[in-house]
Amino acid sequence: MRIHRVVLAALAVMAMSAVPVQANILISVDKSAQRMTVSVDGSVRYVWPVSTGRGGYATPSGNFRTFRMEEDHFSKEWDDAPMPHSIFFTMEGHAIHGSYDVKRLGTAASHGCVRLAPDNAAVLYALVKKEGLPNTKVVLTGNAPAAAPLVARRKPGRQQEDADAAAYRPAYGQRYAPQADQSPYGQPTWGRPGYQQSDGAPVYEQPRPRGWFPFFN
Predict the structure, then answer these.
(1) Are strands 114-116 and 136-141 parallel, antiparallel or unpaired?
(2) Beta strands in 42-196 (DSSP E)
(3) What's the pLDDT tens digit per position in 33-78?
(4) What are the backbone angles phi and psi of residue 71, rounded to the nearest 5°?
(5) In this model, does residue 131 exceed pLDDT 70?
(6) Residue 32, H or E segment
(7) How far apart are CA 32 and CA 20, in angstroms?
């Protein structure tokens, strides 16, 4: 009888050990740094760049529990935009999902969701699916950085170009006088009656040469 009890106890221990123990997942999103840290049972496993909500589409802050997953989801609010490997954490529709706009990861660019690179979103989705939605916690902190204002910048050398143009342009009411090292014939005289050299000697207009086709002149 005693042996029978020992055998039953051993079988019970073996059955309990066969049941996998589910881990606790913590998904921390720092909106100020636009970075996600994924920890499993207190040990950091992944650190990825993200995109949270831009101006007017803020991603909420706080502590949340994941409650729904969709591997191949499309947004009904934003023209059926693809949201692969979506993990939803608010009833308003906020989710962690993959995004093909990878060039903007690391900046606030979404409509409120938390965007990941598609490969990273697939890894996170598989992890949450394995450990379970009830064991996955999402914590969002910080504030998304404001977009940098657009500053009009002049191209290099523009100031010098303006200065050169001002020096070349004669003052209002004055006639152009060539510099000493310039030939008086270096500038056209068409339509400038009374044009004079710097030494005061007049330069008379020459007749305009005619081409092969007079009606083009």
Answers:
(1) unpaired
(2) 43-49, 62-65, 68-74, 82-88, 95-98, 114-116, 136-141
(3) 999 999 999 999 999 999 999 999 999 999 999 999 999 988 766 5
(4) -70, -35
(5) yes
(6) none
(7) 37
Q: State how far the Cα of 115 lies from the Cα of 108, in Å rounded to an integer.
A: 9
Which amino acid would we find at residue 115?
R
Rounded Cα gap, residues 127 and 96, in angstroms: 13
* End-to-end C-alpha distance for the chain, whole angstroms: 126
3: left (phi over 0), alpha (psi -120 to 50) or beta: alpha
Q: Which helix (H) or strand (E) holds 4?
A: helix 2-18
Q: Class assignment of domain 21-141? A: mainly beta
Provide, rounded to the nearest whole percent, the portion of the chain with pLDDT above 70: 56
Q: What is the DSSP string of 117-162?
A: -HHHHHHHHHHHHHH-GGGEEEEEES-PPPPPPP---PPTTHHHHH
Neighbour-count burial of 59, counting CB atoms closer than 10 A to its CB (0-12 exposed, 13-18 middle, 19+ buried) = buried
pTM here is 0.60
| CA nearest neighbour of 72 among 60, 61, 82, 57 | 82
How far apart are alpha carbons 72 and 161 in whole angstroms? 57
The full set of domain ranges for the chain reads: 21-141
Residue 135 has pLDDT above 90, yes or no: yes
Q: Does residue 217 carry a pLDDT above 70?
A: no
